[in-house]
Design goal:
about 400 residues; alpha/beta; Aspartate Aminotransferase, domain 1; Aspartate Aminotransferase, domain 2; 2 domains; seven-stranded mixed beta sheet; three-stranded antiparallel beta sheet
């Protein structure tokens, strides 16, 4: 008899966290590793948010249990923020505060998916999505869009993948891992298709403020109001406010679904840390000046890394208009001999790059088909120049 349940044994390790952990371990050992693996801003959390947390630690009420769905003030702050940023009008009983966006994703699938249900998963996708579907007993149906489509799936592709078992669609714009952003017309068309076919939409909007070149990221439930009863929105403070370690996210949805997910959370993890919630309230109710300042730095780094990657023979890197990732195709490098090794997959190429020039990137296998690497440019300009320079030197050696 196995010591670990089949359900848990089947879960794949988070590739992004694994790459980040390996890079940090090498750095701790004194190696000059440059890591492009982690999807987290390299900025500190803004001071006014930190001060709000410090003050919250001295309030005894924050030392106690609070409602599983979240502090009332936090839920109201999310209501106001959602109206401000998305023009989506909701009420507090449509909100559940979670331990980061990742828990919200897990609980969304756990709440609406039954064994055998299919979930359409546009690919490239964030590495955690299929594992959450699997834990809920569902089946992921990948719908792949390559670099020639700027990694954006079409309604026609979704329709071709739809079956009588299709229960939900996972939608993420701006995208992790590609940084691609769907246009207003594309979002509306996909939403109308989902509504027509009675398909749930789980919309991950955590990168909503990280946009460039005039791109916008409208909420699908706003463009297609009829979706409100079959749409769950995932969001959080991690990416926008450089608060990945504070672990505050949320899900927004129909009242019955949020009530059911709250019941699940009451047994799973109780309430989110009250101090973190108080910090998040300060973030959501403050202005966005710190966010815009970080966005300016990300925009500069985006242009820098795209230009450098496209100078490498065999790399083809579309220019993303959201998030803080680039996702170049490296298919032109595969099969070539590099320092006596011939990588045939992007996983093998990523390993070779890490071992030979101590630069960490996440291979495409973590997000869908092989042939790609994901680089997070949430790091310094100097590291971008040095890290991509090392890769170019490695791949252009005589």
């Amino acid at each position: 008899m196995s010591r670990v349940s089949a359900r848990i044994a089947a879960i794949a390790e988070s590739a992004t966290l694994a790459v980040d952990a390996k890079a940090k371990a090498l750095k701790a050992a004194g190696r000059p590793v440059i890591g492009f693996g982690a999807g987290e801003p390299d900025f500190p959390t803004p001071d006014y948010i930190v001060e709000a947390a410090a003050a919250a630690t001295r309030v005894v009420a924050n030392h106690r249990y609070t409602p599983a769905a979240g502090l009332p003030e936090m839920r109201e702050a999310i209501v106001a923020k959602t109206k401000r940023d998305s023009n989506y009008v909701i009420t507090a009983d449509q909100v559940l505060v979670t331990n980061g966006g990742k828990q919200a994703v897990y609980q969304a699938f756990a709440t609406i998916i039954d064994p055998g249900d299919e979930v359409l998963l546009p690919s490239p996708y964030w590495t955690t999505y299929p594992e959450c579907v699997k834990l809920a007993g569902g089946k992921s149906v990948e719908v792949f869009a390559d670099e020639t489509q700027n990694y954006l799936v079409t309604v026609e592709q979704l329709e071709a993948a739809r079956t009588p078992k299709t229960k939900a669609l996972l939608f993420c714009s701006p995208s992790n891992p590609t940084g691609s952003v769907y246009s207003v017309e594309q979002v509306k068309a996909i939403g109308e298709w989902a509504l027509k076919n009675n398909i749930w939409v789980i919309s991950d909007e955590i990168y909503e403020h990280l946009l460039y070149d005039g791109a916008t990221a409208p909420s699908m439930a706003v463009l297609v109001p009829g979706l409100a009863d079959t749409c769950i929105i995932i969001n959080g403070v991690a990416k926008t406010y450089a608060m990945t370690g504070w672990r505050v996210g949320w899900m927004i949805g129909p009242k019955d679904v949020i009530k059911a997910a709250t019941n699940l959370q009451s047994h799973l993890s109780s309430n989110v840390s009250n101090v973190s919630q108080r910090a998040a309230i300060a973030a959501l109710t403050g202005d966005l000046s710190a966010v815009h300042k970080m966005g300016e730095a990300f925009d500069r780094r985006r242009k820098l890394i795209v230009g450098l990657l496209n100078e490498i023979p065999g790399f083809v890197c579309p220019t993303p208009t959201g998030a803080f990732y680039v996702y170049p195709s490296v298919k032109g490098v595969l099969g070539k001999t590099i320092r006596g090794k011939t990588p045939k997959t992007s996983a093998e190429l990523a390993t070779l790059i890490l071992e030979e020039v101590e630069v960490a990137a996440v291979p495409g296998e973590a997000f869908g088909p092989s042939g790609y690497l994901r680089f997070s440019y949430a790091t310094s300009d100097e590291d971008i120049v040095e890290g991509i320079g090392r890769i170019k030197k490695l791949l252009t050696e005589g």
